[in-house]
Amino acid sequence: MQKETPELEVPALGFLFIFFIFIRADHLTNMEKSQGVELMSAPVKKFAVGGIQAAVWQNESKEGAQFNTISLDRRYKAKDNEWKSSNSFKMNDLPKAILALQKAYEYLALKSIEETTAPQ
Length: 120
Prior knowledge:
Blueprint: H1 13-23, H2 30-34, E1 38-39, E2 45-49, E3 52-60, E4 66-77, E5 83-86, H3 94-117
């Protein structure tokens, strides 16, 4: 018997940008640092669209609560032929950023559904 995959509603694009702004994890805020939040060394999952990459991170607070954050980067080759990262985006990068964020959101939403419906 094949397991039925739950349908996932994709939020409006505007929501994704707001979602990204509030959960970005490039750098922890001072409040997060004071609460003992630490990032793990490697992302749980990466979603790349061209030079744009969304990375999902598993974090744990000082109290042991686990939560996910997402970072978004643009990779580019500099004049010195070295690869660099930036968190600034050109207008033509935005559709790629939206797609990468949608994939990260879909991954986390499906993961959440699986965790809540898994037999104990």
